[in-house]
Design a protein that fits this description.
The chain is mainly alpha-helical. The protein contains seven helices and four strands; from the N terminus they run αββββαααααα. The protein has two domains: 125 residues, no CATH class; 34 residues, no CATH class.
Length: 163
């Protein structure tokens, strides 16, 4: 079970937020979770697996906090992989590399007829977490007046950056 619930198609997000279901099941069924990190670079997958996490004695009410802790552990594992792959420096991710990554994700998910928009829409986000696109959406509707002219610079910068 992959607790992210979907592929990560973000060039900026190391790991999606996790659904609490994996931890919920581990608590309820007295099962352990095996943290695994996968990273794709060109034609190769890299994997790190560490010791199981035992949730015996954990409370159901703590599942969201425990899920965030699990996400932190998984992100740390991904960093262990990335540190050894110099081609995965964020500054080196070109549009062409990102496009090949997305094409790869859609190819391996071919039987599921996924689209990038569907993946983005179905990714779990905890309450209070919003995307920059949502946070700055008001700038598209903003009517500039003397009282809000100071926002013009941010609106122009936002409009230039978005795809």
């Amino acid at each position: 079970m992959f607790p992210e619930g979907t592929q990560n198609v973000s060039p900026d997000l190391l790991l999606n937020h996790l659904y609490a279901g994996a931890v919920d099941l581990a608590i309820t069924c007295h099962a352990e979770i095996v943290p695994i990190a996968l990273e794709w670079d060109k034609d190769t997958y890299y994997c790190v697996i560490v010791e199981n996490i035992d949730y015996t004695g954990c409370r159901y009410e703590d599942r969201f906090t425990l899920s965030e802790n699990l996400r932190d552990q998984m992100a740390t594992l991904k960093w262990k992989i990335i540190e050894h792959l110099p081609s995965l420096k964020h500054s080196d991710i070109t549009e062409e590399y990102y496009k090949s990554f997305i094409d790869h994700i859609l190819t391996i998910s071919e039987g599921y007829s996924l689209t990038v928009d569907f993946i983005k829409e179905t990714a779990f986000r905890p309450k209070g977490i919003i995307l920059p696109k949502e946070a700055f959406a008001f700038l598209d509707r903003l009517q500039f007046k003397k009282e809000n002219a100071f926002l013009a610079k941010d609106a122009i910068r936002y409009r230039e950056k978005r795809p």
